[in-house]
Amino acid sequence: MKKASDQSWILGRSGQLKLATISQSYFLNCVRRLNLSPETSYLPWMSSDDICLAYLGKDEKPSLLNPATQFDFRSAYLRMFLNLFSLSPGTEVFTKGLKIDIFHEILDAMPHSLETYDQAVRLIKHWSDWQQELFQGIVKSVLPLCAADTRQECDNSFGTRHCVGAIFTGITLSSPYPDISLNISFAHELGHQALMHYQFASEILPDAEEWIYSGVRKTLRPPISALHAAVALSYMIECCRGLIYNENDIARRAFLNALLSEYHDALSKGLKALQPVPKSKLAELIIGDLNHTLNVYL
């Protein structure tokens, strides 16, 4: 199997090393602007200007906890995020019209959910080395989601500039293999996190009035959202290839192969839609990486 170019920006070892450098600098700057010691661990909420200003303005600062692992589901740690988000309601983390919430009681309420998370986490070892290392480097916390009213699992997943380094995920109960779907969701959100770091460093696509086709939502979206979708699909393809290579169960392999074909087709259509869009040099380099994904995985 071909590998990404040594000059890649969003894929492969070269892309992973570039993103490691950018993310380390970004995380350190976020800590410094809070007048905290450089030895202080970065927490995802520190990326939000609104939350940081609200935090600095409080006489009694909310208590802060560092995660024990990327998958720290302790109620106190998850509630910390809710408390910090409440400092600045305008952060839009949970104001997208989605009736979802952080599943802070997951350890006590849903033991079977924890089993699905454990299974999905174990599958990460089947990703390519660069994707595993990127996940370890730029994802600080995976935060479980639930329906706000029923406190049951929901299949939403997202990331936000107000919480860079955090992946919000839920379990897709309708999937025949929820562990596989959740693992692919990790890869999907990792792609968004990667492109988000480049957005902080440089303009990628100029503002455009005309919306274009997006390969994930399969509808018209702003060009930068369509590019985000293309990067996410490329990461999902990379994930599926690793899972297929290491899967012995015939039914699970068939499920993964069907997804791989679906993602490849969606990426092809998404990249075609991006062709006429004016781009920065960085955007051209990133899209070149994504086209490489199509050529490798035909």
Q: Topology, please?
A:
Blueprint: H1 12-32, H2 49-56, H3 75-86, E1 100-102, H4 106-109, H5 111-123, H6 129-138, E2 141-147, E3 157-158, E4 166-169, H7 178-201, E5 212-214, E6 219-221, H8 223-245, H9 250-274, H10 281-296
Parallel strand pairs: 2-4
Antiparallel strand pairs: 1-2, 3-4, 5-6
Helix pairs in contact: 1-6, 1-7, 5-7, 6-7, 7-8, 8-9, 8-10, 9-10
Question: Overview of this structure, please?
Answer:
This protein is of the alpha+beta class. Helix content is 52%, strand content 7%. A four-stranded mixed sheet has the order 1-2-4-3. A two-stranded antiparallel ribbon has the order 5-6. Strand 3 and strand 4 (166-169) form a beta hairpin. Helix 1 (12-32) packs parallel to helix 6 (129-138) and helix 1 (12-32) crosses helix 7 (178-201). The protein is globular, with a radius of gyration of 19 Å.
Task: Write a brief caption for the model.
The chain contains ten helices and six strands; from the N terminus they run H-H-H-E-H-H-H-E-E-E-H-E-E-H-H-H. With 298 residues, it is of the alpha+beta class.
Q: Give the strand content.
A: 5-15%
Q: pLDDT average, as an integer? A: 91
Which regions are unreliable across 5 or more consecutive residues at pLDDT < 50? Answer: none
Q: Helical stretch count?
A: 10
| Cross-sheet strand order for the largest sheet | 1-2-4-3
